[in-house]
Amino acid sequence: MKIAVMSCIHGNYEALDAVLLDIDQHSCEKIFCVGDLVGYGPHPNAVVAQIRALDIPTCVGCWDEDIVEGLNACDCSYPSLLAEKRGIQAHEWTNKEINPENREFLANLPHSFKEGNLAFVHGSPHSNHEYLLPQLDAFVALERVISTDADVLFCGHTHVPYARTLDAGQLQVRVGREEKIQEISFTSPLKRIVNVGSVGEPRHGRPNATYVIYDTDIQEVQLREVPYDYHKTCAAIIEKGLPAIFAWRLANGLEYAERADDPTHVCTR
Amino acid sequence: MNKWAILSGIEANLAAYEAVIADIKRQGNSVDALYILGDLLGPRPEAEKLVERVLNPRHGELEPLICKGWWEEQCLILHGLGPTGDAPELMAKYGGDTVQMLWECVSRKTVQWLRSLDFGFFELDCLLIHGSTVGVGEELTPETPPIQMLDRLSRMQANNLFCGRSGLTFQYHLQAGSITTALTTLDNQVPPQTVSVVPRQVIGVGNVGRTPGQATYTLYNPGTNQVEFKTVYYGNSKGFQSQRQITKSKSGV
CATH classification of A2-252, choosing from 3.30.565.10, 3.90.650.10, 2.40.440.10, 3.60.21.10? Predict the structure, then answer.
């Protein structure tokens, strides 16, 4: 069975529409979403309405959480005061724009969910603010998958897709307690982390929307890149009064020039 | 290089603290640092006396380096200075009487001082904390799964992690390990690479004040990586200051 998994739509309806068409053309039987339906983009209500209409199983993203609970990320989430100012602007705009039904929908999204041996989460199983980057220590990455009790962990949050295998993990441990010494062996079969990228705010260097198709029968991951008319979204960002740099970023498929000092930092608030 | 004396969980037990300090004095000049890894306080009437004693070492005693523990965090929460608004964990674990006792036996001045305490210390390649790198409330024990233990060590890149939350004395050596990882991105495919584990260890340093009449603590020599667990018996029923060393081991890390 082929499934499609997407993330980080960020209020970009044009991109979502293009991705749904691409999913349709690849005969996927199920669609899953790992959050961040809103934030940055100009069409938060249209995006949430579409996800609701299609009844797509979705977990909550950090932007969705902030719309429900209020802005609660610590200041270390932003690489600069300027970035923080823009983030707050986008949050406040989205907070005003979102309608009560859609806010209620976001409020009821789970932190994570499972489907057979597949787990779905926005950031990491431990925090929606944690970035599971491709260069993360392999054992730490393995711990994240094992903590879900699944074989494949789908996540988003970084906006750059990748598929990582973690195979033949093994550890030898010696535990001494009082006079007793105990030897412990740990082994782990093949596990995977699949970061599904971003539909509506990609950062892989091109403006195309990204998502993932996973074939559960042959455990094959296909990273999909879908062109769409991003100019329409850029124009809407400007028209709605959102910070113009969001349009620039969308058109270039890039993060701001400024980056967080420690992208692995986990917000503790 | 001299040894470090590492204590945790005094829990406002002044007699237990005095017994351990006396035992450290008996080591002579071989101990040159004294760490208290949290839970200095506890819901006992002598909490203020203990703080006074710890912060004012007598002539010839070491000045302790103190970090925050679970009880200190509960105190801060009760005074509206913690990470959460109420203290559900404290209530669930110990009930309302303990909450009241903790509120009454710790002064506002002491609470202000608690705010200045660090989460832990990083010295050489050693991390010294109360709970784990996730938080003061997490217990690391001999039963903690290896992959979780490695994660907790990796979060702060420590080779030796000293902790006290469980109250147990133990040495948990991650001796060896490997994993093979491969990466596919939109533009690149990194072939499988095998990564090995650098040997590391977690040390449970024991608990000074929880068990009446019996305190445990740890001596560590950072030069030789030798860990020594000490048990000190105190009080009339046990024979004041009699002691027994229960484990002495040398780490290969």
Answer: 3.60.21.10
